[in-house]
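RETRY 2/3 - previous attempt timed out on the joint model. Re-submitting the same 700-residue input unchanged.
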Amino acid sequence: MIVNPITWKKDHISIIDQTVLPGRLKYEACRTVSQVREAIQKLKVRGAPLIGIAGAYGFLLGIRGFRAKDAAALRREALHIKHRLISSRPTAVNLAWAVRRMFHVFEENASLPRAALLKRLEAEAHRIFREDADMCRRMGAHGAVLLRSGDSVLTVCNAGALATSGGGTALSVFYRAHEQGKRLKVYACETRPLLQGARLTTWELKRHGLDVTLICDNMAARLMQQGRIRAVFVGADRIAANGDFANKIGTYGLAVLARYHGIPFYAVAPSSTFDLTLATGAEIPIEERDPDEITTLHFERPIAPAGVKVYNPSFDMTPAFLVTGIVTEQGVLRRPFSKSIRSMYGRGSK
Amino acid sequence: MIVNPITWKKDHISIIDQTVLPGRLKYEACRTVSQVREAIQKLKVRGAPLIGIAGAYGFLLGIRGFRAKDAAALRREALHIKHRLISSRPTAVNLAWAVRRMFHVFEENASLPRAALLKRLEAEAHRIFREDADMCRRMGAHGAVLLRSGDSVLTVCNAGALATSGGGTALSVFYRAHEQGKRLKVYACETRPLLQGARLTTWELKRHGLDVTLICDNMAARLMQQGRIRAVFVGADRIAANGDFANKIGTYGLAVLARYHGIPFYAVAPSSTFDLTLATGAEIPIEERDPDEITTLHFERPIAPAGVKVYNPSFDMTPAFLVTGIVTEQGVLRRPFSKSIRSMYGRGSK
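RETRY 2/3 succeeded.
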């Protein structure tokens, strides 16, 4: 039903090149770690859960493509692959989580014959893929309870089918509510500089028959002022132990605006997004990207004077005290998050 | 010194076409009311004070270009010109203010011979032009007092030399502080959809030697969260009797964010921006513009799916209680604004 941004094709992955949407629906083959790394860095594949899945398949491709002289060389290569994949983007933790999971399976099975090892790795990558789709469904179900027919909701970036192997994180909530027959009006922030909201979120919501209206990021406050937003749902790239979380730049501002206007603000993310090694969001690394992303429109025509100084953080950090709830596949976490997050992990989440 | 976006050339005005900056510095001649109206509607000429000046010259051009059979026909034409110019954009009040001022001079001198009437009208248009430049200097002086060397400031849209006949409203404050030897770091919000901040503000500040850094609109909150903004200065398109004001979309959100972070927030505008016929900002008409402004980048390549619904308000309304002060040519108004605005007018402002 929903578009599939990554598909395993026996000896490679086929990805949708998300940088050319909505103009073209173009598939691209990735056969090597370098190609996967480049697809992640150039945002052909993006969205925290999806780059985790890409990383998992990337690890598999790396081991498949390496002919080791001996066990030590193979392990050195596996470590190298792990490092290259994890370092391709710094903020989202799902990438590191998925690649480490693959590395763990590698280590447990490194003594097996090559074919058996590859089979285990392939099975694990598929498992990560399927688990993500399943978590999307469960997040959607938990989040949809928070919505009533007639609600207007706001989202930023693309936390949808294009960001996961299922129906998305934040958008899975809207899809599920829509399936339940609830009429929703979705406002999508365009999400400068790379316009994931304008290009991707409107595209997949329209394709799926939802009522979506595009706004520029700086219009959200006016909608809230007019009482036209009932709730905000966003994805997350990394959530610290206290509930602080990093997400696409602009998320923090929306959280402040929502608080000011008394509007509930929810992060939606699978448990692989939590990084309990970080006490607070202050420790989350925030990627700063190329100034060209801002000064040229979609990598083409300049819109600012040559050489102008630019500040281009790709993410920001939203403190937990601005968050109403965190929707996970296990349910909606409520404040105090340091307690509800701990107890979710206590219930035996991965 | 500073670029001049409108110049009177004996029988026409020469304007900078601001839609093609920063790529090209292109001048264009406007000889008729229709050309002036189109230049205003297409944002070749923009900025509340500047469209007032364009309106004044437009009125002069209209009367110059009309050969009346009799006094009644001339007056009908003058009313028609007045209406066409004022209706070209609804939100900024300076346009109506300047055109009404020209019409008033017309009415007072309608019985004079044509040459004498035109001379009076030309003199009045020049007076509006010069007064605006003078008000910019005075706003700059009053506002610069609020800044110290080393301050980082934030602005939105273009409230600069390109928006006035002088050094601007908000930007005149920065220019003046810079002239006084204060080191400033200016952050310019790019100002979607038409990118006046990215295209115009960075261009003129760089040209003038100021330290300017471009950000996307959704990055302002992060700078504030990091303690990197000392004050916010914005222009205004119309200010109601209680201090509520309309300005470029995104202004209201910045005001909320500034309040949340405890950062002073100033509107900078000449007295022609006040509309005392409106009790509050709720009565200010907010222009909604073409969806294409959002869905295609700078009128060219599509960045959103064809036919997507779009909400595109060009302005928003910032309530007075979020405003620290209003910098005018007569000084800095403080709260309660309903009182300080009344008393400014009591001192005999136009």
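The longest helix of chain A spans residues 114-144. Closing ticket.
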